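User: Could you check the structure of this?
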Amino acid sequence: MKKIFLFLLISFLFTACGEECYNAPQPVVFEFVNSNDENLITNGTLTLYNIQDENNTSLQLTKTDDDKVILEKVGAYNGTKNYTFFSNVKVFDFSIQSSEFKGGCDGYQINKLTFTGINIDVTDENGYYKIVLE
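Assistant: Sure, the predicted C-alpha cells are below.
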C-alpha cells in the first residue's frame, strides 16, 4: 500500500510540474486601401500613421513586405479596450474585445473588433482587415 501511495504521489508531481504554455492572441493586421482597392502605403498616399490606446500610449506597429500593418501586443487582457488610428488621411476609432483562452494553455483570444468613424468601410479578409480610407 505504501508503494502504491508513493508511486501515485510521484506520478502526480511529474504531471503537475509539466511545461507551462501560453497562447498569445492572434495578431491584428490592417491593410489600408482606397476605393479602387489600391494599397495606400504602396502608392504613397498614407505616409504617417499611428495607433494609440485609451491611455494615449502609442502601439508598436510593424509594416509587412506587402504594406500591411501589424498591431503588436494587443488583446492580452479580459474585456474591451479602445484605440484611435491617426494618419495624414483619416482618423477613426476601434475597440478590441478579448477574453481568456479556454484550452490546455493559459492565454487570451481576441473575440471582436469594432470600428467606428465617419465613412469607414472595413472588410474581414480572413487573416487581415481591409480598411477603405478616403
